[in-house]
Write a structure and sequence with these properties.
The chain is an alpha/beta fold. It is 37% helix and 20% strand.
Length: 342
């Protein structure tokens, strides 16, 4: 029987909807799955890298992983080798927006992890300033392997200045852009003092303390041994920072936060007070993934640039300035402390 009027219109609408569903279903079935155009090796490599990020990232709970994965596979396109996915891995790390995670290819990873003291590591600089104020500049050190000579030189300088009667100390972190935190922490350990000086704080709240014992980070006592104690334990300390001070150097900055008779001078730090963990990929490339924030000895957790107690534009290299204003402010403060008053 032929339908007419409203019944006919309803049937037409139903047929139209059914046809649309059939067309849509057909299109969906034909859409390629993520990574379909990639070789299995490249697809597995990228999948593993993304799995590492999603499982371990400090900000994992805040990330739209469906979008990140889709974007990564779209960027990888028809990649046939792991190397052809590097751009996708790098962009996925940028999409985490933690401002610290990074990817290194096999050559870069090897150079970073095996850096030795002979490979362009600037040694620490120690000297006695006017008014019996000790000065220790701590440049970056790229790896623990490169830190052996660094720690030895710094400790020798500290002992020599201490023997000359230093009443207070300037710790200069303005040129330190990162690397490993443990070498600089061991270098400055006799001045910093023993105890829990800070902590890593993971996304779930788990804390891992930075414990200094006999002037050395506890886990490195077998490597670097105990430091020579100062003749004046727990002296007054001025910490200098700049916008270059980053990553591991920010951790050393944090280790001095909350310490008695300590004050910081200069510019806010770069803003990456977080901890990266190395994950090796199958071809030797590395993901250095941000997995924890950092807290000082009082429990305060840092996020972003660390503002010094006394903010001063770092004009040490400005020829029109009247000397190093940051250092001058620090030494004036130290000269006012009880141990340095004349």
């Amino acid at each position: 029987m032929r339908a007419t009027g409203k019944h006919a219109m309803a049937r037409c609408r139903l047929m139209a909807v059914t046809a649309a569903l059939v067309v849509t279903a057909g299109c969906t079935a034909e859409a390629p799955s993520p990574g379909e155009a990639m070789s299995p090796k490249a697809r597995n490599y990228l999948t593993k890298a993304l799995d590492i990020m999603e499982t371990n990232s400090l900000l994992s709970a805040e990330v739209d992983w469906t979008a990140v994965r889709r974007g990564a596979f779209d960027r990888a396109g028809t990649a046939q080798t792991p190397a052809e996915t590097y751009g996708a891995v790098r962009q996925a790390l940028r999409d985490l927006e933690d401002q610290h995670s990074q990817f290194m290819d096999p050559e870069q990873t090897g150079e970073t992890l095996s850096a030795s003291a002979e490979e362009d590591v600037v040694p620490p600089e120690g000297k006695m300033l006017a008014d019996d104020i000790g000065y220790l500049a701590l440049p970056p050190v790229p790896s623990d392997e490169a830190a052996d000579d660094y720690v030895r030189r710094a400790r020798a300088a500290v002992s020599k200045i201490d023997e000359q009667g230093a009443c207070g100390w300037v710790i200069d972190l303005r040129s330190n852009w990162g690397g490993t935190m443990w070498g600089p922490l061991a270098a400055v350990g006799p001045i910093l003092g023993d105890g829990d000086t800070g902590a890593f704080v993971e996304a779930d709240g788990k804390k891992t303390a930075w414990t200094v014992e006999n002037g050395t980070p506890r886990q490195y006592l077998d490597d670097w041994g105990p430091a020579q104690p100062l003749s004046r334990p727990m002296p007054s300390v001025a910490v200098l920072t700049s916008r270059t001070t980053r990553s591991a150097a920010e951790a050393v900055t944090i280790a001095f936060r909350g310490r008695p008779d300590t004050r910081s001078f200069g510019e806010p730090t770069s803003g990456a007070p977080t901890a990266n963990v190395y994950h090796r990929l199958s071809d030797g490339a590395g993901i250095f993934l941000t997995e924890a924030r950092e807290a000082d000895r009082t429990g305060h957790v840092y996020n972003g640039p660390i503002t010094p107690d006394r903010e001063i534009h770092d004009d040490a290299r400005d020829l029109s300035s009247h000397g190093d204003q940051v250092l001058m402010a620090a030494t004036r403060w130290l000269s006012s402390r009880p141990d340095c008053r004349r």
